[in-house]
Amino acid sequence: MKRLVFEAEHDQLRETARQFLEKECAPHVEKWESDRLVDRESYVAAGKYGLIGFNMPEEYGGGGVDDFRFNAVIVEEFSKFGPATPGVSLQNDIVGPYFASLATDEQKERWLPGYITGELIGAIAMTEPGAGSDLAGIKTTAVRDGDDWILNGSKTFISAGINSDLVIVVARTDPEAGHKGFSLLVVERGMEGFERGRKLDKMGLHAADTAELHFENVRVPGNNLLGEEGKGFYHLMHNLPSERLSIAIAAIAGARETWRETLQYVKDRKAFGQPIGSFQHNRFLMAEMDTELEIAEQYIDRCLRAAVDKELTAVQASKAKWWCTELGKRVVDNCVQLHGGYGYMNEYKVARDYVDVRIQTIFGGTTEIMKEIIGRDLGL
What we know:
CATH architecture of the largest domain: Up-down Bundle
Structural class: alpha+beta
Order of helices and strands: HHHHHHEEEEEEEEHEEHHHH
Number of helices: 11
Strand content: 15-25%
Distance between the termini: 37 Å
Helix content: 40-55%
Strand order of the largest sheet: 1-4-5-8
Largest sheet: 4 strands, mixed
């Protein structure tokens, strides 16, 4: 079914993204997977292709485009390709909106030009060893010292934690204010007391660097406060729906690509003198997955329309996030089974997809948290 949400200009960006992936990423996949790190130069290359910062203000070098369908196109193409790519969706969909909507003019002048070219890489540090989905459990603190803040604490599971130059840190700035006691501080590479811990050894997504970050008496200038003091929790809640929609888009696009490859496999692979896809069980399973993926795509497109109209709600994004990631996980698992023993071999992409997809029901808010958000909206 043709997806009517996209127009010609979105298709043009899709082609640009494919060219970038083929020319700038495909030759380096094995190295990046082995190194457990994507080269910083790939971010600069993405900037030259216009894949970073297209949704940033034109006066700082961005594209000035406020249309989440462009974000979706990039997410889909990168997800089809695989995780050995620069974290463009992290820059555009998760970190970038904080800078675009909260930064002062002075901060934008300092950070956005380099961010848009890919020379400055961003990250957001929320999760702590003892605080994941429950952001109220954050223990990282920032205390006033004159015009500056003194930051102490640790973060973990931070995407782009190794490569990042600008880290938006969620810190407790008023211990007595509950949810109103959090603020966002931007810690820059090279600040004294800012240390990167382990590059974490993950089950999947090997080329996507994830790290621990440590802050010991880091002096953060007062003009590195992002947004309003005490409004950090509000800022996070405002940006999470688009992040969760992005994850949902990635889940379905990646699962659809795995399904396509499996469709070809079950047509080619023979058992008992006939293609294994011709057996009724396998034929029904492929039909079920195709149908479920298409239905999920239609809901995603509905959410995209809402995002373009600035009407996407936290509940809609939560529905998309939990349903699409759980479906993606189930589709990839089915595809491994259809490949038989070959599905367990890392030389087949489906085996790598299996470990890569597992995180999607966890990061950005677990499936259980998504259901909690929806359930509360029902008055339960």
